[in-house]
Write a structure and sequence with these properties.
Blueprint (H helix, E strand, L loop, with lengths): L2 H28 L6 H28 L4
Helix pairs in contact: 1-2
Pfam families: DUF7981
Organism: Haloplanus rallus
Keywords: Membrane, Transmembrane, Transmembrane helix
Length: 68
């Protein structure tokens, strides 16, 4: 597996876990959310997939703009 693919997958994992942390914080501070745990899991997977895709597309552009 290439380093770009590994990096993209890790950023997707970070995005999904960050969403779940925010949802749990909302539950703890303000009460229950409308959607259940399955719906939150599905949204977390969607957030992770979007973060993975965006990172995979944008990382080469950002790497090209690095200054030494």
């Amino acid at each position: 597996m290439t380093t770009q693919r590994t990096s993209s997958l890790l950023w997707g994992l970070v995005g999904a876990l960050a969403f779940l942390v925010l949802a749990q914080g909302y539950r703890l501070l303000l009460g229950p959310l409308g959607p259940g745990p399955l719906a939150l899991g599905a949204v977390a997977l969607l957030v992770g997939a979007v973060a993975t895709g965006l990172t995979h597309v944008l990382e080469p552009r950002m790497r090209g703009k690095e200054r030494s």
